[in-house]
Specification:
Length: about 230
């Protein structure tokens, strides 16, 4: 007698680990060794000409793509590559130039406000201290981490959606929020990989370890991945 469809046995979905165990130091070293071999000189994909324009670009990149930001800032940075020039440009014109970017009204207001504060409190220079950076309008911990890393060569771990996803999937620094992942990366990433670690993680998440359709077949660390999202048979 045939078995009714409703009674047929189905394979249970893969179990997701709620409290995954972080990888060993040797495994983390191997992962970043492969990332370095794949991309020896990883770089951020935002266009900028100095520390000030980098800061502005990162502020504008919140909830926007790097490609979209670059398209908008090309003309903006031609007109204003210093706080003084940005302030002279004015909020209305900045808003018009960046209107293709999400949340452009509030971002334009922040760009003008941070430019004014840089002039009044920091001698028109982008500060190196984290606390000073985070005191600027529109600048949070992630933005400060990016600027400190790229502009000043500090070892920081800026956690965006890509870094958060990859760090959890690969169990490099599992965490339930961005701060947990950032602090986990500080402990887990070997010093020799520290400067470029967040770039490798971003690029891997953006082009390979995607949120919905990860390209596991072309992943350089697929054999080390035990994520429930893995798509290799």
């Amino acid at each position: 007698m045939p078995v009714p469809n409703s009674a047929k046995r189905r394979s249970p979905p893969p179990k997701r680990i709620t409290n995954p165990k972080p990888r060993s130091a040797a495994e983390v070293y191997e992962i970043f060794s492969r990332f370095r071999q794949q991309r020896p000189e990883p770089k951020g994909e935002l266009d900028y000409v100095n520390a000030f324009t980098l800061l502005v670009a990162v502020v504008l990149s919140a909830q926007a793509t790097d490609a979209g930001v670059n398209k908008a800032t090309k003309r903006l940075f031609e007109l204003a590559d210093t706080p003084e020039k940005m302030l002279a440009l004015g909020e209305d014109q900045v808003r018009e130039l960046i209107k293709t970017i999400g949340l452009y009204r509030n971002k334009a207001k922040n760009v003008i406000a941070l430019s004014e504060k840089l002039i009044l409190e920091f001698g028109s220079e982008v500060p190196i201290a984290r606390e000073a950076l985070e005191s600027l309008p529109g600048v949070g911990r992630k933005t400060a981490n990016v600027v400190l890393n790229i502009a000043f060569g500090e070892i920081t771990h800026a956690v965006d959606t890509h870094v958060f996803r990859v760090a959890n999937r690969l169990r490099i620094a599992p965490g339930k929020n961005v701060l947990q992942v950032e602090l986990g990366l500080e402990k887990a990433v070997p010093a020799e990989f520290g400067r470029h670690a967040h770039h490798w993680l971003i690029l891997h998440g953006r082009y390979t370890c995607k949120a919905l359709r990860p390209a596991c077949e072309s992943c350089v660390v697929a054999d080390l991945c035990d994520s429930a999202d893995k798509r290799i048979a």
